[in-house]
Amino acid sequence: MEENNDKAEIYSQRVRAGKRTYFFDVKSTRSNDFYVTITESKRKFKDDEFSYEKHKIFLYKEDFVKFMEALQGTIDHVKSELLTEEALAALENPAEAELRPVPVASAEVSFDEELKWE
Questions:
Q1: Model confidence, pTM
Q2: In this structure, is the dihedral angle defined by the CA atoms of residues 76, 78, 79 and 82, taken in order, positive or negative?
Q3: Which residues lie below 8 Å from residue 64, measured CB to CB, with a gap of 6+?
Q4: Residue 82: inside a domain, yes or no?
Q5: For the domain that residue 57 is a member of, what is the CATH number?
Q6: Which strand (E) or helix (H) includes residue 85?
Q7: Best CA proximity match to 61, nearest among 36, 44, 42
């Protein structure tokens, strides 16, 4: 009898972010329990071919609350301590941010580099 090692997928959500895609999947175990996998898939170009580098986190239900608290605390810290009001507004309302100029703190600005979250 051949055994299927793939876990049953209950739910999946994909988030595209430039060269990266994040997958949030809920899977079930043989004992009808569940867990979440978070996968980062990054598109790479090498030798005239595309390939994908993947990193996966397994998150078990007994750790959901701790994980959510730590993630929310980290996001709150970035929002309150590291981002300017203009940058925060741009993240929260990207359509509106495209229409208004963002003040620059320094006269020495280079437009050669693309700013992005990685």
A1: 0.66
A2: positive
A3: 36
A4: yes
A5: 3.10.450.700
A6: helix 85-92
A7: 36
Strand pairing of 34-46 and 8-17? unpaired
103 occurs within a structural domain = no
| Half-sphere exposure for 8 (CA within 13 Å, toward CB) | 8
Give the Cα separation of 38 and 22 in Å (integer): 7
Q: 3-state DSSP call for residue 87? A: helix
Q: How many domains does one find in the chain?
A: 1
Picking from 70, 116, 71, the residue whose alpha carbon sits closest to that of residue 90 is: 116
Residue with tokens 């609350």: 65
Q: Which domain holds residue 24?
A: 9-92
Written as one letter, the residue type at 102 is: V
Q: Cα–Cα distance between 19 and 16 in angstroms, integer?
A: 8
Give mean pLDDT in consecutive 10-residue pieces for the chain, a chain of 118 residues: 61 94 95 95 86 94 96 94 90 68 44 44
